[in-house]
């Protein structure tokens, strides 16, 4: 099969990227006379190797600027606490559409990047989506999409096809179990992974428009409709039902171990995002990996959730802001961004960069056809993501649907 490498050109309705190569070659300004060290605080374990390679190239060009990468999985809580305490890292990755980050834009925490010529390497309409009160604070590098990854060899051996509806998905899971195959890898020891597939189900049960309305009505004191209660109960029921098709020790499995198991063929499917591809293929380069859209009750209702996966900002209070800007400019170059895309496999938003989308072409096609939704985390208020993560993780341990609905209403009432 011929590999598909393409310039990622579409997220209809929000990001429509038809990019012609920009030939920007902004070079760093004069080198600092003394060696300075900057911390780059970032949230993606999948990006550690890519960032190490990029740092090596940057430091070759800028020998007096040392970049120290600091990866933390629970980065958001740590990052926000460090900002509040006045100890913000010099450089940090972020998810710029989430309201937790947007709340910090314009409050003196993120360096204003407006007017920096390197931003011309990103399609203007994308930057407009990320701009806060007319100001640019981040350089986005990539997008993400979430779906169901599957082992094509297992599916072929059992004559299975990617299911198009939720009922067909459950039937596929049962056929796999009957054949002695664990249907789905769950990594419930890592709470954010539970949050992510729960968010996917939430979007499937509410339309994006209904979810946005629901999140506005609750804090405004409007009564909860019976339909919305049923939707939340359905979210809980699906989360609960899927657990029966995971490994018996799912609560003891963390993210990296889940990747290893899936890559080794110990399960047939894994509900995750495009960011997982490099780790899966690193664990098993021979794996015949593909993805399908997580099915809703009807095929037309099935949606891919997506957003900006990796963006970089600098601290407005950092001592070495000029050096930080040099590094961000270096990240924005097409050859640097290509290194990131080759490692990360997520769609790049930097002009002139191509991405290998072969394994998740079904997700790309769904997004370009408009069967998509932004992450709910971009809709609800700051602080709710942490509460939603705790709620969904607690629920898979106790399994009480009524308690889930009651707690969810309390959580979302604070939106």
Note down, in words, how this protein is organized.
It is a single chain. The chain is of the alpha/beta class and 415 residues long. The chain has 2 domains: 5-143 and 307-358, D-Maltodextrin-Binding Protein, domain 2; 145-305 and 370-413, D-Maltodextrin-Binding Protein, domain 2. The protein has helices at 48-61, 75-85, 99-102, 124-130, 152-157, 166-178, 191-205, 208-217, 226-243, 255-263, 277-283, 321-332, 334-344, 361-368, 384-398, 401-413, and strands at residues 5-6, 36-42, 65-71, 91-94, 139-151, 182-185, 267-273, 289-292, 304-314, 355-356, 372-374. Strands 2, 3, 4, 5, 6, 7, 8, 9 and 11 form a 9-stranded mixed beta sheet that branches. Strand 2 (36-42), helix 1 (48-61) and strand 3 (65-71) form a beta-alpha-beta unit. The longest helix is centred in the middle third of the chain and has 18 residues, at 226-243. The chain is globular and about 65 Å long. The N and C termini lie far apart (47 Å). 45% of the residues are buried.
């Amino acid at each position: 099969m011929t590999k598909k490498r393409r310039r990622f050109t579409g997220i209809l309705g929000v990001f429509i990227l038809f990019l012609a190569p920009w030939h920007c070659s902004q070079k760093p300004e004069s080198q600092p006379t003394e060696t300075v060290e900057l911390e780059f605080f970032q949230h993606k374990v999948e990006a550690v190797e890519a960032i190490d390679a990029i740092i090596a190239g940057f430091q070759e060009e800028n020998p007096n600027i040392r970049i120290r990468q600091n990866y933390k999985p629970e980065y958001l809580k740590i990052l926000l606490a460090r900002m509040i305490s006045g100890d913000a890292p010099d450089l940090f990755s972020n998810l710029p559409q989430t309201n937790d980050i947007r709340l910090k834009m314009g409050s003196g925490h993120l360096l204003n990047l407006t007017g920096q010529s390197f931003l011309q390497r990103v399609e203007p309409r994308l930057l407009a989506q990320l701009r806060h009160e007319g100001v640019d604070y981040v350089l986005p590098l990539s997008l993400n999409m979430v779906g169901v990854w599957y082992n094509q060899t297992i599916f072929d051996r059992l004559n299975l096809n990617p299911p198009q509806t939720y009922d067909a998905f459950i039937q596929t899971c049962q056929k796999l179990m009957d054949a002695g195959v664990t249907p789905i890898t769950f990594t419930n020891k890592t709470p954010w992974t539970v949050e992510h597939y729960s968010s996917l189900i939430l979007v499937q049960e509410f339309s994006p428009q209904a979810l946005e309305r629901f999140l506005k009505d609750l804090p405004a004191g409007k009564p909860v409709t019976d339909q919305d209660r049923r939707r939340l109960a359905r979210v809980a029921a699906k989360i609960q039902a899927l657990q029966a098709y995971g490994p018996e020790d799912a609560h003891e499995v963390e993210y990296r171990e889940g990747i290893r198991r899936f890559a080794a063929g110990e399960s047939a499917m894994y509900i995750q995002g495009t960011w997982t591809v490099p780790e899966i293929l690193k664990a098993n380069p021979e794996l015949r990996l593909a993805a399908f859209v997580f099915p809703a009750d009807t095929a037309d209702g099935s949606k891919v959730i997506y957003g900006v996966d990796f963006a970089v900002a600098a601290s407005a209070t950092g001592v070495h802001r000029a050096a930080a800007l040099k590094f961000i400019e270096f990240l924005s170059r097409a050859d640097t961004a290509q290194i990131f895309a080759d490692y990360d496999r997520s769609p790049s938003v930097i002009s002139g960069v191509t991405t290998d989308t072969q394994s998740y072409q079904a997700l790309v096609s769904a997004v370009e056809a408009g069967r998509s939704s932004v992450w709910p985390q971009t809709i609800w208020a700051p602080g709710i993501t942490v509460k939603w993560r705790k709620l969904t993780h607690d629920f898979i341990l106790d399994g009480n649907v009524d308690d889930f609905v009651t707690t969810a209403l309390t959580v979302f009432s604070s939106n």
